[in-house]
């Protein structure tokens, strides 16, 4: 059986050497790693959730440090922490559920207050309920809660000490099981995010429209293909996305799928934009304020779109949603890549050149939320200003800063 | 030589069949953790080169991290000098327990060259398939897959393609004739179609501005491309035969000078070397202080991405990239009034005092830098103390060095471990200071960086202690001449070439002036395109020398031919053998067949003269006899009119100078030669007309033979009339 540390170190090495790239692949691998961490973690009968949270957070800090640029890692770690908290809470509520079977959100708060205050994890989890849970969260959590409540209603009844001990053990096992189930669902969500987003394509892409995109994004590609499959006829203009020129690859794939495709240089975007009906792009990360971190050149595209009042639509899986704000100091916004992508090394240098030529090759742009018209995620289209709400659905406020908690 | 190499072929043939299976074996690499040079002295007396920090991470970490990311699964690290330190380091840094990446060390204390190392590895039978051969000071981010694929494909077609060399474009400076890595200009001839390497010369200095290529290169290949703007990355993809080749040729020491040139020149068993050029990825080897400087700067400028300071690639502490290429570790103490310029790396736990300025430098971990210090283009390693008011320019400062108040380092200084520089002491440019005594100078630059050599090295353990006392009395802190090894005048001449400091402007101007003067003297030099510049600086001198050389050569050649001929006469050697011998002489002295004809004729005449004679008549008879005997030999070389004229001229010269006895017989002998059909009338007529414009003194023999010539002319006219 592989040990946790070995798995973690292996993944850290992969992350730090940039062997895993792309938000989706990274998210999936992170979630899988955390799933095995949860399943391998030994849990004490008392307060298992707190132990689990500490373990996951410790590993999360390591993973984030390995590649601070890939924000999806931190997102998934926070999602898993949130899952643990939620599951723990749902177990607690279901335990007390025999007293009050109708587990409504308003009652939960009162139950929490009655509950043993030494259980700090529960208390921490309770904090997340200080704010009213969204309708979506309620809908999501309903089936999960239904299952445990049924079991516990049947098992509870005896008052003896042993009974309660066995109960605790069972509860620990149950927690683990539930958390793993929930992480499996999260992995499934990550896997299916492209399809979920692509399903919405027909609502946004209309007949004979001209769509502009920059660089290459699998989400955007699936989005276009889905619209094509629904017999929409439209034209895609692909800005090549210097210096990595991933736009070239995207354009080739689009053409092979029978879409009308035009490739333009990045610098021709402004000239093209007046003919464009909509800009649809994939991004690297979505920040809490609705701004996005996207491949370099995107801000220029967004500004051009704004100038001509063309909608700037971002397609992004929910795993790209990052609970931090772009001004947070711990957010490493950019990745300075090798200048070799811009210039061939050998041609550039003479030995005795005076001042050294400086070549800067940033990987990403930050596009402010004012420039983003619509964010399309797996669960539908949202206004950038709605992001904070989604964040409160998917993350617990306690986990926003992973680092600070570890020092306590 | 030929028999010796027989063994390897047998192995190669067998391996060919197993080639397909070999392709499945894990990818292996050999790292030579010893450069077998002394370029990094005196630092390497105390620490092996591969462990020297390069932007705050040991060089070998870059090599290993690159190999790991390039998909190499098994690495053999060959340790020689300071092997214990290397093994200890690898042990400590967890390289030994990486998943899917096994690192094995091979230790030896008596290898003195790369050749020895490879022979030793061959004996261990650990290499099972194609392998990557690099030294432990290679920094690269190239992907090996493409090069490996090409190599394997070539191997499938031709099992003699034993090696693929990685090269990269890098134009040498037209002034200093050095690449930016401080290596000598490299000349290569590559077949542009197949990328086969046909010629390799990295020591152009020895050639005095000339390169000679084998003519066969031009006849055997439809096109060749001659390149001087490539850099050898010293990354080789080798087939197992390479190891056996080293074993078979036990005199091979240097990878390039012996092995590559050996294969190219001697054409051993038809083994071929190919090249693979990389364009966008980075690969370079730290060969000297200048490349240390250049590669450090490249790393800071992120050309080696992802092997850069802010990416946690291995063992290096994470630093944060700030604006303008500033890298700062999280825990540093920095005064608000200090200025840290662009492209600077500051390591963990370093403190920087007030009004200190640091630019283009790398500062290691745990250094304490005082106030009003200026550091420009320096490499300060770990735990260095620099007191207030010090000035450092383009220097390397090793671990544990202390610089007292106001000390100054001029460009190119290297301070080895734990050196203490006294108050206000000025270390002159290009000095290398070490606490260890330099081992005795050896002629070869292939000598070993060896701890064992330290039997001759005097250690001064109480050095720094005593210095503090000295410090109060005197100003200098480096009183002991043994410890303070200033570069001698002769050394300094070349020192700037490989120093960590940039090439000083006055040096450039100096070289430029020399080049310009030569260019003016030699107009052709100025017209040569840059890639065709084969060192115009020595052309003028050479051409004079060459003229002398040719004269000398022809005299020696004549003597040799004469000696050969005489021996032939004495030992009664057949003509064919004489022709063979003379031909080989002709080739070795690079003479024409006309020269041979002249020399042989001279020898024949000399023979006739040496025979006993009393009167000119008898002499004439001797000549007739000699000519009859050696007619065939003479005819062999007299294939055209030019050669015949040469013979007449030679004869004339003889009559005038060495053998005056012949002068009365000139016409007679000439006539005889004509009769014997050794010399045709055209040649005589041409000779006569050639001499027409000459001075009177030269015309003596023309006048003598006037009648004969007249007769010849008439005879030919008659023939025409017929």
TrEMBL record, chain A:
Protein name: Translation initiation factor eIF2B subunit beta
Coiled-coil region: none
Species: Capsicum annuum (Capsicum pepper)
GO biological process, one term: translational initiation
GO cellular component: eukaryotic translation initiation factor 2B complex
Superkingdom of this protein's organism: Eukaryota
Gene3D superfamilies: Translation initiation factor eif-2b, domain 2 (3.40.50.10470)
Classification via SUPFAM superfamilies: NagB/RpiA/CoA transferase-like
Any one Pfam family match given in the protein's UniProt record, by short name: IF-2B
Molecular function via GO: translation initiation factor activity
Family affiliation: Belongs to the eIF-2B alpha/beta/delta subunits family.
UniProtKB/TrEMBL annotation, chain B:
Family: Belongs to the eIF-2B gamma/epsilon subunits family.
Record SMART domains: eIF5C (SM00515)
GO annotation, cellular component aspect: cytosol; eukaryotic translation initiation factor 2B complex
Family matches, as Pfam families: LbH_EIF2B (PF25084), NTP_transferase (PF00483), W2 (PF02020)
Chief location: cytoplasm
InterPro entries according to UniProt: ARM-type_fold, eIF-2B_epsilon_N, eIF2B_epsilon, LbH_EIF2B3/5, NTP_transferase_dom, Nucleotide-diphossugar_trans, Trimer_LpxA-like_sf, W2_domain
UniProt subcellular location: Cytoplasm, Cytosol
Protein's name in the database: Translation initiation factor eIF2B subunit epsilon
Keywords, in A-Z order: Cytoplasm, Initiation factor, Protein biosynthesis
One Gene Ontology molecular-function label: translation initiation factor activity
Highest taxon of the lineage: Eukaryota
Residues covered by the W2 domain: 551-722
CDD domains for this protein: eIF-2B_epsilon_N, LbH_eIF2B_epsilon, W2_eIF2B_epsilon
Subunit relationships: Component of the translation initiation factor 2B (eIF2B) complex which is a heterodecamer of two sets of five different subunits: alpha, beta, gamma, delta and epsilon. Subunits alpha, beta and delta comprise a regulatory subcomplex and subunits epsilon and gamma comprise a catalytic subcomplex. Within the complex, the hexameric regulatory complex resides at the center, with the two heterodimeric catalytic subcomplexes bound on opposite sides.
